[in-house]
Amino acid sequence: MPAMMRRRVDRLGRIALQAAYDAHVDAPDAPVIFASRYGDLGRSVELLTQLARPEPLSPTSFSLSVHNAIGALYSIARGDTSAYGAIAAGEETVEAAFTEACGLLSDGVPRVMVVVYDEPVPAPWEHFSRDVAFPHAWACLLSASTGADAIHLDCADAPATSPEAADLPADLRALRFLVSGASRWEHATGGRRWRWARNA
Amino acid sequence: MLELEQEIKRLVIETLNLEDVKPDDIDPAAPLFVEGLGLDSIDALELGLALQKSYGVVLASDSKENRRHFASVRALADFVSSHRTKS
After folding, report:
1. Where along chain B do its domains lie?
2. Facing A58 at nearest CB: one of B18, B20, B49
């Protein structure tokens, strides 16, 4: 990304963009879904703090505080006019992103890139969620397949459960399933049970 | 005035996160926007805010006037030195 655009991007955006640039190399025409549970929440804290003081709001922060700002900058930097999406779906953000990707694939797009990124919820809201313990980003290219290595994802109603104690944020548990070769992973959250399976 | 120009260059670099740009890289007479340094309209707003905070200058909404004040670092220094209410 040109330095004149990159200068406006914070840590979270930078790691998301790094993942996007790296993964996109193999399919530069693939439409992109940016998925983040909390997004760039630090900017919202900054803006609300300025508003409460009251101080004038930073126009740069304001322009970048929307959830699709990182994807938008990326598309501008690449001069790319293909489809871009920005998703936030709480604990189910990865599943929502993959569902959206499946929609695009079934429309006939050969490959879709999904970029997932999050960082810890900033003070003073950190007590609302400590699920994201560290900043991270990953990206992958998806294509439709019925072959031996195909991944199957479906969703069923399940009795509401309290969140499972987990060693990693949900998106990284999904990534672990994707790269580990494990045959299945179930992700129960709220009233739903997402079932990830390989060779299904 | 030279000192104020240097100060404004540092303010521009710091406020707009101009990576890898040093005060000496900025020609005080060169355009700040589009050509020259290549800043855009969001930068203009951000810079206006920083000038207001640092020097107490208030920018009118008259875009013609502002265009003149924001033409270059030198023009900004002229504007600040004649309108500042904070030292």
Report:
1. 2-83
2. B49
- pLDDT at A163 (0 to 100): 62
Would you say B46 and B24 are in contact if contact means Cβ atoms under 8 Å apart?
no
Q: For A35, phi and psi rounded to 5 degrees?
A: -130, 125
CATH of B2-83, one of 3.60.110.10, 1.10.1200.10, 1.10.110.30, 2.60.40.10: 1.10.1200.10
**pTM of the shown model:** 0.88
The answer to whether B71 and A83 have CB atoms below 8 angstroms apart is no
Residue of B nearest to A64 (CA): B42
**Rounded-to-integer distance, Cα B7 and Cα B20, Å:** 17
pLDDT along chain A (200 residues), means of 10: 88 96 94 96 93 91 93 94 94 97 96 97 91 95 90 88 77 95 91 87
Interface subset of A 1-60, CB within 8 angstroms of B: 3-4, 6-8, 56, 58-60
